[in-house]
Structure formats: structure tokens, C-alpha cells
Amino acid sequence: MAAQNPLERTLLLALGAAALTRERVQEVVDEVVRRGELTRREGKDLVDDLMERASDQGSGVRERFDANLQDLFRQWGLATRGDWEELNLKVAQLEHRLALLEGPQAAKEPGGKADGQVSSQE
Does the pTM of the predicted model rise above 0.70? Predict the structure, then answer.
């Protein structure tokens, strides 16, 4: 079932742009230009417009997918990358605070033991 007019063809191209590569869209538009239904400039503008729309639609789909996936991770009790990075930062902060509390004395003793701690080998 072939489209009968340029407007209908343009609409069909717009709907299918998200699934087609730029090369395939260019091939279809080149054919329409070859038939004289569009000028070369109109064809170029059409390809650029379709690719921009496809990119915008793809970005929206990715954003919704990411949000749904993060919701699913939370429902399952799984940590997201952001959760993981936040935990790593907290651990690093706690290690730093512990090092400050232990003071320079702990670093000078053999094995890094604080005063009063006994090694299992002693």
C-alpha cells in the first residue's frame, strides 16, 4: 500500500523515522527527489528534520525507560549506581573521620595498631 501524495509520504516517513537509520531515510528521500516530488534542498531539510524528531523521541523513551528501571530496582531492593556512589562516599568519609580520631599515633605503631590493641600473634 503505497502513499499517494507527498504529505502522506512525509507523515509515513516521520512515523517510521525512529526505527530507520539516517541512511535508509536518505535513500527514501532521494527517491522522492529523483521523482521530482521534492527539491534537493527540501529533501535535505526533510531528512534533517526527521532525524531530529527521531533523536528527540529516542531521548524521551530512554529517559522513561531509565526512570522505570530505577523504580523497579527500588521495588526489588537493589542499589542503583547513584546509591552505590553515595555509599562509597559515606564510607570514604567515615574512614577519614576514623583516621582523624585514631590520630598520628596509630600510623606510627607497627601494623597500624592503636594503643592498647594486641596482635593475635603476641
Answer: no
Mean pLDDT, range 82-101, rounded to an integer = 95
Residue ranges per structural domain of the chain: 1-77, 79-110
SS3 content of the chain, % helix, strand, coil (to 5): 75, 0, 25
Q: How far apart are CA 21 and CA 58, in angstroms?
A: 13
Q: Which three cell numbers stand for residue 97?
A: 573521620
Contact predicate 87/79, CB 8 Å: yes
Burial of residue 46 (CB within 10 Å: 0-12, 13-18, 19+) is: buried
Among 47, 42, 11, which residue's Cα sits nearest to residue 27?
47
Phi, psi (deg, nearest 5) at residue 50 = -65, -40
Cell (9 digits) for 119: 596482635
